[in-house]
Design brief:
CATH architecture: Orthogonal Bundle
Number of strands: 0
Structural class: mainly alpha
Number of domains: 1
Strand content: under 5%
Radius of gyration: 22 Å
Number of helices: 14
CATH superfamily: ABC transporter involved in vitamin B12 uptake, BtuC
CATH class: Mainly Alpha
Distance between the termini: 41 Å
Order of helices and strands: HHHHHHHHHHHHHH
Length: 355
């Protein structure tokens, strides 16, 4: 028979666990509300500002608004607002799972060279008209960016599986990739014509202004495929945070888990970047905010990373429209200004404690 004290202790533990779960669900729900409001504000701002009531009416009662307002909200501003959501969510999830499988708090598509590789691939098309894979002219830039980003991600993965390679080595390899692709990009910019140079510079700054419904659908489809796969492996990914040996003792094939995760991470990182250009630090900052709010449990960490990344980029889109009246700043500039101080804080914090 179980002693009464043990039964009380077990009941208290169960109650505390339920309270913790409820707290995490409430936080995720609050993030969802904040994201909805941010998207609404994003659609309300532009060359012509509208009240939120007009935006909600155009969304939920389109027949009750003018044709002009309906076209502006549905055909012009909504693709941009939703692109910010899907791109932010994709980059944040990619960064979250990179940090998980590499056991590195500094891992993200931006810091490991995937975004720099995409920028170089896009520049090959913009400057030299070179197609890594023969495609129609209108798809050359995103396809080049995607393929180069995938190559960089696969290089990082296979390097991480080599014998004797440590987490620090992976970070150094990522930094080497960043410098390599940035140097190659600078060379292309030096050789480019004025028109091509302007196109490359604008693309590398990152922008949502060329978002379209087909691009939104593609990024949403990739996210819809990746999230269920990560959710199915939530327990294994959570166990991997305890260390490779501990995860292997639970019967987890760590090598296979890393390969599957890196392939999905590559898609999540490469496709959005190929459409909107280089957007840094979302994949680094979003997961850390989610981790501070809900912890490491992938059942909560995964949805929180999705929402934090989406909210971060959506809020950045709002800021890019309000800093300079009448102008829309490249969104990559804003994310860098936000992300760099966070990056420094993360480095100094990591020096004081193990991650």
């Amino acid at each position: 028979m179980v002693p009464v004290a043990d039964r009380i202790s077990g009941a208290e533990g169960h109650g505390r666990y339920r309270a913790l779960v409820l707290r995490r669900l409430v936080l995720i729900g609050g993030l969802c509300v904040a994201l909805f409001l941010s998207v609404a504000v994003d659609m309300a701002l532009g060359p012509a500002n509208y009240a939120l009531s007009d935006v909600f009416r155009a969304l939920f009662q389109p027949a009750a608004v003018s044709d002009q307002l309906r076209v502006i909200i549905w055909d012009i501003r909504m693709p941009i607002a939703l692109m910010a959501v899907t791109v932010g969510a994709s980059l944040s999830v990619a960064g979250a799972q990179m940090q998980t499988i590499l056991a590195n708090p500094l891992a993200s598509p931006f810091t490991l060279g995937i975004s720099a590789a995409a920028g170089f691939g896009a520049a090959l098309a913009l400057v030299g008209g070179i197609a890594v894979f023969p495609v129609a002219t209108q798809f050359m830039v995103p396809v080049n960016a995607f393929l180069m980003a995938m190559l960089a991600a696969l290089f990082i993965h296979f390097a991480s599986t080599m014998r004797g390679v440590t987490v620090e080595t992976i970070v150094l390899l990522g930094i080497a990739l960043v410098f390599t692709f940035n140097a190659l990009l600078a060379l292309l910019q030096y050789l480019a014509s004025e028109q091509a140079l302007a196109a490359v510079v604008f693309w590398t700054m990152g922008s949502l202004t060329k978002a379209t419904w087909p691009k939104v659908c593609i990024t949403t489809a990739v996210l819809a495929v990746a999230l269920p796969l990560f959710a199915r492996r939530a327990w294994a990914l959570t166990a991997l945070r305890l260390g490779e040996d501990k995860a292997a003792s639970f019967g987890i094939n760590v090598r296979r888990l890393r390969l599957e995760t890196m392939m999905m991470v590559s898609l999540l990182a490469a496709i959005p970047v190929s459409f909107v250009g280089t957007i840094g630090f979302v994949g680094l900052v979003g997961p850390h905010i989610a981790r501070m709010l809900v912890g490491e449990d992938q059942r909560f960490f995964l949805p929180a990373s999705v929402i934090c990344g989406a909210l971060l980029l959506s809020a950045t889109s709002v800021v890019s429209k309000t800093l300079i009246p009448g102008a829309v700043l490249p969104i990559g500039i804003i994310t860098a200004l936000v992300g760099v101080p966070f990056f420094f804080a993360l480095i100094f914090t990591h020096r004081r404690r193990s991650w």
